[in-house]
Amino acid sequence: MPAQEEVNSPPRWFYTLHPDIIETHILTRLDGPSLASAACCTTTLRFHSGQDNLWSNICHSTWPSTAASPQVSQLISAFPDGGPRAFFSHAFPLLTDCHGPPSLNPPPPELLSAVDIKYHDNLIFTKLQETSTDGGWFRSSPFRIDLLEPKDVVPTAVKYLAGDESVAEILDGMTLSWILIDPIGRRAANISSHNPVAVQRHWLTGELQVRFASILATAGHGHVQAGIVVTCGGSEGGEMQVREVKLEIEDVDGIHLNGKDSMVILEGALAGKKGTGKNRVREGRRRYREFEKTKREKVENRGSFGYVVLGFWCINSYCFLVLFLVQITICRKDN
């Protein structure tokens, strides 16, 4: 029986191929996780799979927004410990926590958001946006990044389904990547759940609100939700329109954090532990369900406490009224 390493290795004829054929006709057909797996097979594949041009192409094809600016492409190539390969390892996995090492440096003066939305693997929205983080207004106001102005609409070639089947179709067909990039520290993190964690129709406008989320464990705020909402509507011709794409951070009490607190959390996300990328969709939805369950339980507990307080208030009021009436009765008898 052949040795285990021989079973997992490519056939011998593979090593007779010219390196250009391996790099340009074989490895270019692989996605990022497959290319990373190939690099673990043999020394030869490790060498060929580590070429920067391969990983640059994978980054740009996986996230077209990263190719929107030559400066960003240059930034990705300069990522420490591997350039574009290192960037992929930062941006692909699901975040697990924000307990990264405390930073002695001030928050970066800006964050880059590289956002791509696909529907059944067809790109329907892509944008690269800079957000200034060093202003007093940003630090004191609720944290929010909007990629579209209130009246902006992005048309798509996708048919908009207005019926009940649209929710299931969006859950299965839409994917979103939101990569936050620290251009100073050369770090990145994908704060999206990749697939939607919830889809609901707005009660007034009828628009579909598609939610993506990362649930992050933090040191100061417990678990928080980095929530991304994509609002979609239909055009007169029946095509889907992207009308809103926003990012906010809230805690289990439903309180939206301000820019200062959010930047501490995002700093931890950029430096914190990341997963392997396996089962990221199922894991993301599981964490979201647990987060929403905790929110409901806290609301119910607050409601129960409120009823107790109301009950005591009613009893006290009733007792006061009885005493008042008794006092009036006694006064009348004395008179």
Question: What's the helix and strand layout?
Answer:
Elements lengths: L3 H5 L10 H8 L5 H7 L4 H7 L2 H11 L7 H8 L6 H8 L18 E10 L2 E11 L3 H5 L3 E3 L7 E6 L5 H9 E9 L4 E4 L7 E4 L6 E10 L5 E12 L4 E13 L7 H13 L8 H55 L1
Antiparallel strand pairs: 1-2, 1-5, 3-10, 4-10, 5-6, 7-8, 8-9, 9-10
Record keyword descriptors for this entry.
335 residues, 4-stranded antiparallel beta sheet, elongated, 10 strands, alpha+beta, 6-stranded antiparallel beta sheet, 41% helix
- Strand residues, percent: 15-25%
Count the beta strands: 10
What is the helix tally?
11
How helical, in percent, are the residues? 40-55%
What oligomeric assembly is this protein in? Answer: single chain
Provide the succession of SSEs: HHHHHHHEEHEEHEEEEEEHH
- Which geometry do the CA atoms define? elongated
Distance between termini? 114 Å
Radius of gyration: 27 Å
Biggest pleated sheet = 6 strands, antiparallel
Q: Low-confidence parts, pLDDT < 50 over ≥5 residues?
A: 1-7
Mean pLDDT across all residues, rounded?
84
Structural class: alpha+beta
Could you give a quick summary of the protein structure above?
The chain is α+β, with helices and mostly antiparallel strands and 335 residues long. It is 41% helix and 24% strand.
How would you characterize the overall build of this protein?
The chain is α+β, with helices and mostly antiparallel strands. Helices cover 41% and strands 24% of the residues. The chain is built from 11 helices and 10 strands. It has helices at residues 4-8, 19-26, 32-38, 43-49, 52-62, 70-77, 84-91, 136-140, 165-173, 259-271, 280-334, and strands at residues 110-119, 122-132, 144-146, 154-159, 174-182, 187-190, 198-201, 208-217, 223-234, 239-251. Strands 3, 4, 7, 8, 9 and 10 form a 6-stranded antiparallel sheet that branches. It has a 4-stranded antiparallel sheet with strand order 2-1-5-6. A hairpin with a 5-residue loop joins strand 8 and strand 9.
